[in-house]
Design goal:
The complex is a heterodimer of chains A (246) and B (345).
Chain A: E1 2-8, E2 11-20, E3 26-31, H1 38-45, E4 52-57, H2 73-86, E5 93-97, H3 99-106, E6 111-115, H4 126-140, H5 147-150, H6 160-169, H7 175-180, E7 184-190, H8 198-207, E8 211-216, H9 222-225, H10 227-245
Parallel strand pairs in A: 3-4, 3-5, 5-6, 6-7, 7-8
Antiparallel strand pairs in A: 1-2, 2-4
Helix pairs in contact in A: 2-3
Chain B: E1 2-8, H1 14-27, E2 32-38, E3 44-47, H2 54-58, E4 67-71, E5 74-78, E6 83-86, E7 89-92, H3 103-110, E8 115-116, H4 120-127, H5 129-139, E9 147-150, E10 163-167, E11 177-179, H6 185-193, E12 198-203, E13 209-218, E14 221-224, H7 238-245, H8 258-272, E15 281-288, E16 291-298, H9 312-321, H10 334-342
Classes of the chains: A alpha/beta (246), B alpha+beta (345).
Chain lengths: 246, 345
């Protein structure tokens, strides 16, 4: 592991990253999802794709990376870009799981790999909307203490800036961003995913012109089980782009 | 004899300490052992000997075990109606921060608890590799040439490649890289700066002969282990060293001349005496052109370097018989009394 201090909007963020196969010339940048960290991604993919230089990054506020300001998805992309400049990385292949998928999309790599990406807005079930409405009403009477009872599972342990960040990025609609994505995309999805359902994958596949959707018999973390197959598909997708440019 | 194994600690080597404690447990069967675990928040737990497994800690099961507090001469386990005292000598087996930086030594000194491990001053000189260099200079002990880098200021490295980069205050090869050319430098620096703001840069001597020797002072004389030539491919990285920490099988004496062995022991003694008494330490040496260079001092070696000693239990027994005595300070209030009486009060 390694740490690089990045200056961003007058703040210093310590970004933890790790490079595998440092001598390879094609870069694959791998971004984790909300509440996760680079170790999970590394455990899944480090054994495969030995012909690429793997770059695993802890996004600000996760794993060993710090974050003391509220960020938007766009900020995440800019910070990853700044780190890439420091470590001389290219946007050959960028893989993003869940929230990381949105960051990866904004970075416009030559090959985009979305693993159960977030970015398609799913209307909340009635139960959740009711809970939010109730909390907003309770808040009027000043019962901040009750917040813990209402806050989403994903946000419970968050620091104040990260809670703000969570509110910034959750439920974002990326329809436009997916539609505007100009390059090749590989979409991999777990059929039983409940966090980002398969219908999101199908929607993104229809939005990104040059895209392929692959479905797996598993959930939101399907790639942990099917890492080898996902890796093989990434390799062949990358090789296809080489064929075309020559 | 009662012996308390103290392990864990808020350290990058926390897990290694757990492995060490589990290994040492099987090596000290003659002792009445007690296990005290220090978690990352500095809470002490009494761990039942039958629960001394790695998963007890990784799964957080230790949190259900009785908490201990430390006070004069002992740890105390508070019950609902009574409290139990845990007295006896402590074996400080916390590697890295807390255990080797002087914190635990200070704590045990302060509460007048006997312990095996480096005292405060010995910790200071061995924990930070910069100060080990200063110690070598002061005691006229040869070592590898070096430069110091700091994260706060940019400085060019003048040592030619290949070089080895180490965090100043970490053992177990964590954050250490060998850099063969400039293209590898930036990442190696980032890796080391993750662990410490200060780094040591040394020339990487390819194919250098490396020897480990452990020893301690007891019953009025120095006692040495066998000399070991560690297995290595280039150098031991964290994973290999990690395995190293659970070692328990006896190793073979390195095939070296009696002259070299005497030289290693002589250098060891020079480092040890008047500083490390009370501790069993391991020194790692390089031998370059028949010259013995000190590479590093491990004041709490992994699993106490048990595998280097013929009779490890006797080694621990004899250290316990030979602790350096601290001078007791008596507060007599003589001075205040004399002033008071002069004033006629």
């Amino acid at each position: 592991m390694a740490i690089k201090s990045i200056q961003y909007n007058q703040h210093t963020l310590d970004i933890s990253y790790e490079i595998l196969n440092p001598k390879e010339s094609v870069d694959i940048i791998i971004l984790h999802g909300w509440g996760s960290n680079k170790e999970l991604m590394k455990t899944s993919f480090s054994k495969y794709m030995k012909g690429f230089r793997h770059i695993y990054i802890d996004l600000p506020g996760f794993g060993n990376s710090t974050c003391n300001i509220a960020l938007k998805t766009e900020d995440y992309a800019r910070i990853v870009e700044l780190l890439m400049i420091h470590i001389n990385a290219c946007k050959d292949i960028i893989v993003g799981h869940s929230f990381g998928g949105k960051v990866a999309t904004l970075l416009e790599p030559k090959v985009l790999v979305l693993l159960s990406s977030a970015g398609i807005y799913i209307p909340k079930p009635l139960k959740v909307s009711a809970k939010i409405a109730l909390f907003k009403a309770v808040k009027l009477f000043g019962s901040e203490k009750l917040r813990a009872m209402f806050v989403a599972e994903d946000a419970k342990t968050l620091s104040e800036p990260m809670y703000q960040t969570f509110k910034n990025v959750v439920d974002e609609d990326f329809t436009q961003e997916f539609e505007n994505f100009p390059n090749k995309a590989l979409l991999c999805w777990g059929k039983e995913d409940t966090a980002t359902p398969l219908s999101s994958g199908q929607k993104i596949a229809s939005l990104i012109k040059n895209s392929t959707l692959v479905e797996y018999d598993s959930d939101h973390y399907f790639f942990m089980k099917y890492a080898e197959d996902v890796a093989t598909k990434i390799e062949s997708n990358f090789l296809e782009t080489l064929g075309k440019s020559n | 004899m009662k012996l308390t194994i103290l392990f864990g600690g808020a350290s990058f080597e926390h897990e290694i300490s757990i492995v060490s404690a589990i290994t040492v447990k099987d090596k000290l069967t003659n002792f009445d052992l007690r296990f005290v675990f220090c978690d990352e928040n500095h809470i002490f737990y009494l761990v039942d000997s039958s629960k001394m497994k790695a998963t007890t800690f990784s799964k957080g099961e230790y949190k259900k075990m009785p908490q201990l507090t430390i006070t004069n001469h002992k740890f105390i386990q508070k019950g609902l109606f009574s409290s139990t005292e845990h007295k006896g000598t402590v074996l400080n087996l916390i590697h890295g921060a807390d255990g080797e930086d002087g914190s635990i030594s200070a704590l045990l000194n302060f509460f007048k608890i006997d312990y095996i491990g480096p005292r405060i001053d010995a910790s200071v000189f061995s924990y930070d590799k910069r100060y080990t260099k200063y110690l070598c200079d002061a005691k006229n002990i040869k070592n590898v040439s070096y430069e110091i880098l700091n994260s706060a200021e940019h400085k060019e490295i003048t040592i030619p490649y290949p070089i080895i980069i180490k965090p100043s205050r970490l053992g177990s090869s964590i954050g250490v890289s060998i850099v063969k050319d400039e293209s590898e430098l930036d990442y190696a620096l980032d890796c080391a700066f993750e662990y410490d703001n200060s780094l040591i840069v040394e020339p990487f001597i390819e194919g250098v002969k490396e020897y480990n020797l452990a020893g301690y002072f007891a019953d009025g004389e120095m006692h040495f282990s066998i000399v070991e030539e560690p297995q290595k491919n280039e150098f031991l990285d964290f994973e290999k060293k990690y395995m190293d920490f659970s070692r328990s099988e006896q190793v073979h004496q390195a095939d070296i001349s009696p002259e070299l062995e005497a030289k290693l022991k002589q250098t060891f003694e020079k480092i040890y005496r008047n500083l490390f008494e009370g501790a069993l330490i391991r020194c790692d040496f390089f031998v370059v052109n028949d010259e013995v260079l000190l590479n590093e001092i491990n004041p709490i070696p992994g699993s106490m370097a048990n595998y280097l000693f013929d009779d490890f239990q006797e080694a621990i027994h004899s250290i316990c018989r030979s602790f350096p005595r601290e001078k007791d300070i008596k507060v007599s209030y003589d001075y205040i009394h004399s002033i008071s009486s002069a004033k006629g009060k």
